[in-house]
Amino acid sequence: MGKLKSPRTRMREYRERMKLHKDEKEAILCRNKLRRRLLREQETNLSLALKVHRNNLNRQRVAKYRISKKTAFEIEEKESPMYNPSRTFTKAVTGAT
After folding, report:
1. Could you tell me which residues come within 8 angstroms of residue 95 by beta carbon, excluding any fewer than 6 positions away?
2. 37 to each of 7, 32, 43, 44, 53, how far by Cα in Å?
3. Is residue 82 within 8 Å of residue 92, measured between CB atoms?
4. What are the φ/ψ torsions at residue 22 (nearest 5 degrees)?
5. Which parts of 1-97 fold into alpha helices (H)?
6. What pLDDT digit, counting tens, does each position of 7-23 carry?
7. Whole-structure pTM over 0.85, yes or no?
8. How far apart are the C-alpha atoms of 56 and 52, rounded to whole Å?
9. Is 79 left (phi over 0), alpha (psi -120 to 50) or beta?
10. Cβ(18)–Cβ(28) under 8 Å?
């Protein structure tokens, strides 16, 4: 295999070929258009599959997080309530029972 060409060199050679073969220019452009369209379709199919997979993973992660927050909040609330609503505000501040 030969030396790899830089993008600049490839583009220069492509333009030269287009100048030399003006009669084949339309066929070359159609082939390029078809190739790019097929690549875009493949990318969209892959991206849709990845989006669905990531969405499912995100839903699972969020569900686990919400469950853990809910249980942690219930445990804290049962262990030590910050304010007892049956007591009046002045009794709570002064500490009188």
Report:
1. none
2. 21, 9, 10, 11, 25
3. no
4. -65, -30
5. 7-20, 25-79, 89-94
6. 999 999 989 988 888 88
7. no
8. 6
9. alpha
10. yes
Encoded tokens for 64? 């686990």
Task: Please name the amino acid found at residue 77.
Answer: E
Instruction: Measure the CA–CA gap between 53 and 39, rounded to whole angstroms.
Output: 21
Q: How far apart are CA 55 and CA 62, in angstroms?
A: 10
Structure tokens at 75: 């445990």
Q: Which residue has the tokens 């499912």?
A: 56
Among candidates 75, 53, 71, which has minimal Cα distance to 63?
71
